[in-house]
Amino acid sequence: MTRILTSLAIVVVTSCFAGSALAETKYTLSSDNTKLQFVGTKPNGKHEGGFKAIAGTVTLDGDVTTAKFDVSVETESLFSDDPKLTAHLKSPDFFAIKEYPKITFVSTKVAKEGNTVQITGDLTMLGKTKSVTIPANIVMEGNTMKLASSFTIDRTEWGMTYGKGKIDDRVALTLSISASK
């Protein structure tokens, strides 16, 4: 009898895990459905910009707290509201795009906090990896996952120190995703 119950338990547990794997949904991120923009500020003004080449995946297994984010941004695709600034941002003073052609983000934890989620993960930029937490609103509409987030990072934590004291260290970022299954 014990052997039968043990076998039954193994079948039930295996079925539960198999069912979870079948429920996993993958959303492919691209420049068509994902936008990453920034605003850099200084005492006498601001500049806006973003990145045009974004790729990655978001994998969900039911509840939003199971989400796994794996995102890559091509630094060459950086743009700003001023062509001269765009060239400077691509230089070794800022993003050093020839040496560091990608920025990556890989989530390590997603937690609910009220009506938002906190997405914690490793952000790698300029060869340095730092843990960041991104507050986001995620809404599931049929086959589409929509994410909206506004947050700031301190650029100096990744060694981007050009213009310290003349350019604010904190950079505002906006991320929006509208990806279908």
From TrEMBL:
Superkingdom in the source lineage: Bacteria
Keyword vocabulary terms for this entry: Signal
Classification via PROSITE patterns: PROKAR_LIPOPROTEIN
Annotated TM spans: none
Source organism per UniProt: Tuwongella immobilis
InterPro entries associated with the record: Lipid/polyisoprenoid-bd_YceI (IPR007372), TTHA0802/YceI-like_sf (IPR036761)
Signal is among the record's keywords: yes
Pfam family, one: YceI
Name under which the protein is recorded: Lipid/polyisoprenoid-binding YceI-like domain-containing protein
Annotated signal peptide: 1-23
Domain spans labelled Lipid/polyisoprenoid-binding YceI-like: 26-180
